[in-house]
Amino acid sequence: MRRVKSAGPALVRQMATTSAAAIPPYRGGEALWGTRASEPPGPAALPKQPASTRPPRPPPHLFRPFTVRGLTLKNRIVVSPMCMYSSTDGMLSDWHLVHLGSFAKGGAGLVVFEASAVVPEGRITQYDAGIWKDEQIGPMSRIVDFIHQHKSAACLQIAHAGRKAREVRRTLKAAGRPWALRRDDMRQPKEMTKQEIQDTIRAFVDATVRADKAGFDAVEVHGAHGYLISSFNSPLSNHRTDDYGGSFEGRTKLCREIVKEVRNAWPREKPLFVRLSCTDWVEGGWDLPQTVRLCRDLKELCADVIDCSSGGQSPSQKIAVGPSYQVPLADAVRREVTIPTCAVGEISQAAQAEEILVNQRADLVAIGRQFLRDPFWPLHAARDLGADLHWAVQYVAPFYLFLFIYLVSLSFVTFY
Q: Which residue from 394, 390, 330 is spatially nearest to 63, judged by alpha carbons?
């Protein structure tokens, strides 16, 4: 028979504070369970008023919920889509489960899957992810389910690489970096026929239906970086003379038609994101005023969030890359169109992301490479900003075992 002997309420309170203080801090005073560690307060430091009368401190903007249609994100942190070139026949694998699952486990509000081709010939490489057939639904659904277990949301970016599609092999060296390919290795593009355009729109719709079957909470149409939609938008690459070229209305017709049909196929309660290159960074190319004009049309077509990126259209682009360098694009679209935007590009610090949101320059903040360096970036950002964000219970549980052993060693808990 087991009996537990207590040393009394006062000693138990003392025991709780001393044991918490004894836990090794994590970098800069972060306790193991993800909150800010501090010295046990003395009697003089205790609040004079009852805890129930103290107004709650609002969370930092980065950790405030964001609701769009029927989806509420637990915070404003988005994992930017990043191609891993690790798929076979478009199928996601265990690599993707660990890769994407770690971001949900780390506390991201929305995990955007890498660009997934709507047709096999629309891949950047043969190792790209795809959503052109039903067999690709299951592997994606498995990862979506894991993300949902950690209270994060999942978004699928659907894409067609257009003139950037390649048939060459892109291998991985031991260091894990894709083999560098020259810019002139792209195939000579041919002008799409009207039937091919309609088939492509249909492929985007079919991919959208599969994304819903896989359980995704949102879908993003990839219209940036010189891929198919972006190359239609830009006068640098669109030299068509029919109703899909020439004027602004002609060049943006494909984008508008895809967004319209995807929105019609996507459940009403689920949000639709559109990623755009807001400028080509080349004189005479696609620019911010045209982006604002297009976004007004996309808003009328019931797009919900504009993911504001740039470039990728021409090797002549001149980009002054630096911290938050694309934030002014998201800011301008948000103000001019009155539509939620997502800022992306060289955002790596918690205070930097918080400043973007505090000053209402964007509604969401997308993090890319920083997540590769630190999958637990949201938890560390919460520590830096003084927010409550908890580590996965599997990481917290060992602490309680340690605490129990510690108490036994001090004879506060005995068995006899």
A: 390
Structural element, H or E, at residue 158: strand 153-159
Torsions phi, psi of 40, nearest 5?
-60, 130
Rg (CA), the chain: 25
First-residue to last-residue Cα distance in the chain: 8
CA dihedral (102, 103, 105, 110) in degrees, to 10, reads -150
Domains in the chain: boundaries: 61-171+188-387
The residue that leads in pLDDT, 121 or 389, is: 121
Q: What angle do CA 326, 332, 337 make, to 5 degrees?
A: 135
Strands 71-73 and 66-68, by their bridges, are antiparallel
Query: Minimal CA–CA distance to 287: which of 351, 334, 230?
Result: 230
The two structure tokens encoding residue 72:
């509420």
Across the chain, mean pLDDT equals: 85
Specify which residues 277 forms β-bridges with: 309
Global pTM value: 0.81
Report the residue count for the chain.
416
Measure the CA–CA gap between 30 and 293, rounded to whole angstroms.
46
Quote the pLDDT of residue 40: 47
How far apart CA 151 and CA 146 sit, in angstroms, is 9
Tokens of 326: 């694309």
Phi, psi of 123 (to 5 degrees): -85, 150
pLDDT in tens, 16-58: 443 333 333 334 333 333 334 444 455 455 555 555 567 788 9
Q: How far out from the chain centre does Cα 15 lie? A: 42
CATH 3.20.20.140 is right for the domain spanning 61-171+188-387: no
- Residue 364: φ, ψ to 5°: -135, 155
- Provide the 3-class DSSP secondary structure of residue 15: helix
Predicted local distance difference test score (pLDDT) of residue 389: 84
Task: Report in angstroms the alpha-carbon separations of 227 from 117, 161, 273, 410.
Answer: 11, 5, 17, 65
Q: Which residues pair with 365 in a beta bridge?
A: 77, 343
Cα–Cα nearest to 391, from 379, 373, 404: 379
